[in-house]
Specification:
Blueprint lengths: L2 H24 L1 H31 L6 H18 L2 H25 L4
């Protein structure tokens, strides 16, 4: 890497960190709440992105990752609200496994996306 590009990246990182510090110094409670909400809402998106990364590295294109996530969440909620949290968690996991297996069979055996 050349020195200009490296200095530009470090300069941008310093500016972002300084802006975060000034925002926190100005109103710490709101900044903490915003950061907490950001990490809370970004977690499912990060998990979907990592799932897509693993799928792409294995050579299978999965365009239904969000659908799998939503189906598992819906199944988990419905089972947890009627039977219990443990069974709801197990149902969500099994839903994700079944949908992943369906994709694997369709992609490997029938060569579809």
């Amino acid at each position: 890497m050349n020195a200009k590009l490296l200095a530009r990246r470090y300069g941008a990182a310093v500016v972002v960190l300084l802006a975060c510090y000034l925002a926190y110094a100005w109103d710490g409670r709101q900044t903490t709440a915003v950061l907490r909400a950001t990490f809370t809402f970004a977690t499912p998106l990060i998990l979907c992105a990592l799932t897509g990364l693993l799928g792409e590295r294995s050579g299978i294109v999965n365009i239904g990752i969000e659908g799998q996530l939503l189906a598992a969440a819906f199944t988990s909620f419905m089972v947890a609200s009627s039977i219990g949290v443990f069974w709801g968690t197990l149902a969500g996991i099994l839903t994700g496994v079944v949908l992943g297996a369906l994709l694997a069979v369709a992609a490997v055996n029938f060569h579809v996306d």
